[in-house]
C-alpha cells in the first residue's frame, strides 16, 4: 500500500464525493436488511395461523403477506436507488481521479528530456498512461467501493443477526473464512494467468503495430509469409494463455455456489436443531429463513474481498511504475522564471559533447561565434556532429563541458521558454502530425491567421503544391489522409518554422529532398526573410553556402575548416573538393 499512498491527495481533493459515498452506502445497507426481517415476519404469521382453521386465519395471512410483499418491493427499490447513488459518487470520483492522474503523467512526459525517451520504449510509455492508470483506477473506484460496502454490510448484518441469536450467528459465520480463503487463492491464480495473458496480448499488438508501420518494407522485400509465421506463433501462444485463464475463471462460479450452499446447509441444520430443541432465540421457523438470507447477503462481499485484494495488489504494482516516472526530474530545467530577451548572437566556447547513453563523443573543442543576423553554413560528412551542434543551441541537450552562449549568457542561465520560443528548428527528419496542413504549419505559431500560413508556405515554396490538392490547406495528412512526398514534407516543416518568426533559425539539412531549382527559390526567399535573423544551415550542397557569412566544416566532432566561401575555396580541403565536385556535376547536367 506504500505506493498507493501517493493517491491520497486525490481522495482529499474529492473528499465530498468520498464522504457522501460512504453515507449513502450505510443507508443502502440498512435498507437492504428490511427484506430478511419481512420474510421472517411473514413466516411467523404463516406458522401462527397454520394451526388455526377458518377464513379468518387465511385472511390474516393474505393481508400480512400482501403488506410485506409491498414493503419488500419498496425497500428493495429504494436500496437499489441508493446503490445507484453510491456508484454515482464513488465510481464517478474514480473517473475524476483517473482523468487527473492521466494528465499528471502526460505533463510529466512532456517535461522529460530526449534522454528519457531514448531509455524507454514507446510501448512502455503508452502502458503507463493507459493500462497502469486504468489499474490504479480500479483501486480508487471499485476496490474502495467494495471494501466500504463489505465492511458496512458486515457490521450491519452481524449486529442484526446477533440481536436475534448469538449462537446461530456463530454457526452461520463458520464457513465464511474458508470461503474467503478459497476465493482469495483462486483470484490470485486468475491474476497470475491474466498477467501472462496480458503480456502476450501486448506482444501481439506491438508486433502488429510494427508490421503496419513497416508494411512498405515488408511488401517490398516480400517477407509476408515469414511475418505470418511469426504472427501465427504469437497468436497460438496467446490463445493457449487465454484458455488456461478461462479454465480457472470457470471455477469461480461453481466454487461460490458450493460454498454458499454449504453455509445454507449449516444454517438449516443448526437452526433447525435449535428450533426443535426449543431454543428461546429461535422462537419461530421464520428466523431460519431470515438467517439464510443473511448468509447470502454476506457471501458476495466475502467473495469480493479476495477479488478486491488482488485488485489492490495490481494497483500497487501499477502505481509503483507510475511513481517511478513521476519521480524523475528532467535533467534540463528552466533556470530562470523572469523573461530573457533573445537577440540571436550565438557563441560556442570549447564545447565538448558526449552522448551519455552510448558514450559517443559527438563534438569536441568547438569554438565559434555567429553574430545577430549572420548566417553560418555547416558542412561535414555524415555522423560528423552537425545535428548535435544544432540540438545544443535549442538546448535539447546540455553540453558535457564548455559553454554555449546566447547574447553572451550561458544557455543554462537563459529562460528556457524564451529560448525555445525564439529558436525555430527544422529537423532533419521532418515530422508532421495526422492533421490538416494548415494546423501542421500553425503548430509553429498558434495565433497565426490563414493569410500568414499561406505567406509562410509561399516562402517555403510549397504553396503551389498545396493549392493543387482538392482541400488545399484543409487536406489531412498522415494515416487518415494523404502522404506528402519527402520534399513536400520538408517544405511544410520549413513553413512551420518560418511562421514562428524566430530570432534564430536552425535548418538541419532540410533541403536534401528538394530539387536544385526549388532550393534556389527557397534560398532566395530566405535571404530577405532572414535579414535580421541568425541562421544556421546544415547542408551537403555548396550552393546553400553562397550567401553565408561563415562556413564551418566538421569532421568527427572537430572543426577542420572555418571561413568564408572565398577563403575556403582557396584552401585545399573538404570544402574545396566538395565545391569542385558539385561544380563539375552542374556543368555536366
Ligand atoms: P548526418 O549528416 O548523417 O545527419 P550529423 O553530422 O548530423 O550526421 P550527428 O547526428 O550529430 O551527425 O551525430 C554525431 C554522432 O553522434 C554520430 O556518431 C552519431 O552516431 C551520434 N549520435 C547522434 N545522435 C545520437 C543520440 N541521440 N544518441 C547517441 N548517439 C548519437
Ligand atoms: Mg544530422
UniProtKB/TrEMBL annotation:
GO terms assigned for molecular function: ABC-type oligopeptide transporter activity; ATP binding; ATP hydrolysis activity
The UniProt entry lists membrane topology as:
Multi-pass membrane protein
Task: List localization entries.
Answer: Cell membrane
The answer to whether keyword Glycosyltransferase applies is no
Instruction: Output this protein's name.
Output: ABC transporter ATP-binding protein
Coiled coil, from the record: none
The ABC transporter domain covers 346-581
Give the matching SMART domains: AAA (SM00382)
The residues that cross the membrane are 16-34, 65-85, 143-162, 168-184, 251-271, 291-312
Report which superkingdom the organism of origin falls in: Bacteria
The keyword rRNA processing belongs to this UniProt entry's keyword annotation: no
> Could you tell me which Pfam families the record lists for this protein?
ABC_membrane, ABC_tran
Keywords attached to this entry: ATP-binding, Cell membrane, Membrane, Nucleotide-binding, Transmembrane, Transmembrane helix, Transport
- The ABC transmembrane type-1 domain covers which part of the protein? 19-314
Can you cite an annotated GO cellular component?
Answer: plasma membrane
